[in-house]
Amino acid sequence: MEQLDQIIFYSLEKSIKSYRQFAQKNITKKGFDITIDQWLVLKNHRK
Q: What are the residue boundaries of the structural domains of the chain, listed by start?
């Protein structure tokens, strides 16, 4: 069972990394010179 948990967490981590790369490319494409982490901070601060 432990091996299955490791596979699930590996897949989740891989998906998160892929999404962050996708989001970063879109931020850069829009002309913003910030990281995804900086964008998330700004987005949360705005609320």
A: 2-46
pTM of the complete model: 0.73
Query: Residue holding tokens 């010179």?
Result: 33
Greatest alpha-carbon span in the chain:
46
Which residues lie below 8 Å from residue 24, measured CB to CB, with a gap of 6+? 35, 36
Alpha carbon distance 10, 4 (integer Å): 10
8 pLDDT band (50/70/90 cuts)?
A: confident
pLDDT digits (tens, 9 = 90+) for 15-35: 999 999 999 999 999 999 999
Q: What's the angle, vertex CA 33, arms to CA 29 and CA 26, rounded to 5? A: 25
